[in-house]
Amino acid sequence: MSCTHAEPEEKPASDELECKICYQRYNAHNRKPKILDCLHRVCARCLNKILDIGDGSQFISCPFCRHETEVTEYEVAGLPDDSNIMSKLATRDKSWSSDSKEVVLTP
């Protein structure tokens, strides 16, 4: 008997382009994908909220694994951006804007 092995399904590209806390799409402004020390990704906006409701320490507890990441001077902006996600966003946004043509609607 031969068994057929199913190919592992790849996650859709859009799934990795969204924050797993707020489910909003990452962007290059207030929702930059930030990498914590544990290598989990969370958008900057959610990290700022976590820091705001925290106990005033200079650490963010990862919402997935509870590993603590130091944040100097309470600045989430100092955490590294996920460059892979940022480049995918730039590529996707660039192709979107170059493909879109002005559509004139007529009655």
UniProtKB/TrEMBL annotation:
Domain RING-type: 19-66
Description of how the protein assembles with itself and partners: Interacts with ATP6V0C.
InterPro entries registered for this protein in UniProt: RNF182, Znf_RING, Znf_RING/FYVE/PHD, Znf_RING_CS
GO terms for MF: zinc ion binding
UniProt-listed PANTHER family: E3 UBIQUITIN-PROTEIN LIGASE RNF182 (PTHR46675:SF1)
Keywords: Metal-binding, Zinc, Zinc-finger
Protein name: E3 ubiquitin-protein ligase RNF182
Lineage of source species: Eukaryota, Metazoa, Chordata, Craniata, Vertebrata
Domain of life: Eukaryota
